[in-house]
Amino acid sequence: xxxxxxxxxxxxxxxxxxxxxxxxxxxxxxxxxxxxxxxxxxxxxxxxxxxxxxxxxxxxxxxxxxxxxxxxxxxxxxxxxxxxxxxxxxxxxxxxxxxxxxxxxxxxxxxxxxxxxxxxxxxxxxxxxxxxxxxxxxxxxxxxxxxxxxxxxxxxxxxxxxxxxxxxxx
Length: 170
Fold this sequence. Notes:
Elements: H1 3-11, E1 22-28, E2 35-41, E3 44-48, E4 54-58, E5 64-71, H2 81-92, E6 99-105, E7 108-118, E8 124-135, E9 138-147, H3 152-162, E10 166-168
């Protein structure tokens, strides 16, 4: 299965939708490296899916996060981050990104791609895809999914959860 196909199927999951206490640590992929490791806030739910995604959802419905490591095959060239973001957003049914800006993710420099997504009979979501190049064959991806109606204080809690992600190589 080529790189684009491996991206489209699993990242379609993006469309599935007080001071934090951090209860437990999770990593994706579960085995191998590099991986994204993140401590989950109490009151959030986590889900590993069959497509190697790790998602966290706030119990109050204020947002969700998706984490994934993308690996290119030995003979594949990793596409540009903008191309990866378009694949992710397209698979989720989101609009193309409207801005591309420097960011940070999992302890390093990254790029953020900002978009929106309408959910049938539901709210409009802000979708922020953040991509960090780990090495020549690996990208760390974090996706923030936030209903536009989410209050500023709840957005800060979501950002605090997102900021807990780190790259591990063991």
